[in-house]
Amino acid sequence: MPTTDSSMAELMMTNGNDRVHRLVQKLRRRKFMIYGTDRFVVIGHRRRDRIEALARRLAEGGATVEHTPSFTVCRTPWGARPLILHTYDAASIDEDLPPVIKTELGELEGLIESPQAFGDLLFSIIASVTLGSDDIDCSGVARERLGFVPWRYYGRNTMARLRRLLEHPPIDEEAHRSHIVQFAAIYGWVLDNLRGASYLDVGTSLGFLPFVLSEQRPWAEIVGCDNRPEVIDCARDVAKELGYDQVRFSVRDVRDPEFCLRGRFDTVIAVHLLEHMTVEETRTATANLLGAARKRLILVVPYEKELQPLYGHQQVFTGERLEALGGWCVDHLRAAGFWIEEVQGGGLVIEQPNALARS
After folding, report:
1. Considering the chain, what is the average pLDDT of its residues?
2. Mean of the pLDDT values across residues 321-348?
3. What is the C-alpha to C-alpha distance for residues 210 and 46, in angstroms, rounded to an integer?
4. Contact between 292 and 259 (Cβ < 8 Å)
5. Cα distance between residue 331 and residue 319, in whole Å
6. How far, in Å, CA of 6 to CA of 112, rounded?
7. Over 50: is that where the pLDDT of 134 sits?
8. What does the CA dihedral 191, 193, 199, 204 come to, rounded to 10 degrees?
9. Alpha-carbon gap, residue 315 to 3, rounded angstroms
């Protein structure tokens, strides 16, 4: 058992910070996986009965307990950080975790109040099952690079699923609830619409699209860029860990007036990027993206009914808005033409004047 009734009662009698510290010590001895930040303490165990027993004992000590399909949230009466309990392990963390967090925990009052808190909780859950377990071997990893270890597991698991889905696309409509299924469909569509032999992925995050491109186009020049240096550091580490030596990463901001001066590519791609910008920034970004494309620009945006602030979205796209953007590129940026397809949202392909006609 994670702890005894008497020890939990004793724990509830001490002050808030000491209680959390003593709880963590007790649970670590019982093979719980734990990672804490200034906002949350995340506690995992492979056995659901252990998680349920811990939640019961916390409730008996005065904690408020809320259950979701994947998590149990315990808020103590002593004002400490909320405890997030789960049963994930190192083999089950991947790109499907963020929508689970958003759907199940995003609506709980006062728990996740900003994109920064969302990212903090995502990392904490991943870290709890990697850095927070004695079963994970982090020997030989420098202390300053320990933060990359959780993303290695996340990246390896996500790429394994993307690879399978690209080879065998699902036919079950229920599978569309999965982020990875959706992105596998998007990446497959992008592969079908590439032009030339050099590709730039803008807003690359951890680099999953460049990794897919390198497996499918091993002869191509492939670069991923993002405006967040810490994310690019993670992407480079994941690429090295998984053996994607062909892919290069760089820090670039698509809103920078000198964006195009840092190199042009046959095809420039931006998947789920523009919704993170204001309406005013979108035209600047689109002009820079098109300016960096020798032959073709590929944009993919989600169609959403309402704004998704926890994902950092600043605007909502519809088919009409995407078509207007394509028309603006023709009228004001001298694009040769464009077309739109449904691809887990909207896919906009914009041709440069010197590009060959669409095949």
Report:
1. 88
2. 96
3. 33
4. yes
5. 18
6. 32
7. yes
8. -60
9. 47
What is the pLDDT averaged over residues 38-60?
93
Count of CB atoms within 10 A of residue 217's CB? 16
CATH number of 162-351: 3.40.50.150
- Domain extents for the chain? 5-128, 162-351
Amino acid at 339: W
**How does residue 315 score in pLDDT terms, banded at 50, 70 and 90?**
very high
Instruction: State the Cα angle at 176 between 175 and 182, rounded to 5°.
Output: 115
Encoding tokens for residue 255? Answer: 């809103």
Reference 155, options 44, 237, 35, 33; nearest CA is 237
Q: What is the pLDDT of residues 143-201, one digit of tens each?
A: 455 788 999 999 999 999 999 999 998 876 545 678 999 999 999 999 999 999 999 99
What is the number of other CB atoms lying within 10 angstroms of the CB of residue 27? Answer: 21
Q: How many CB atoms lie within 10 A of CB 142?
A: 8
**Three-class secondary structure of residue 145 per DSSP:** helix
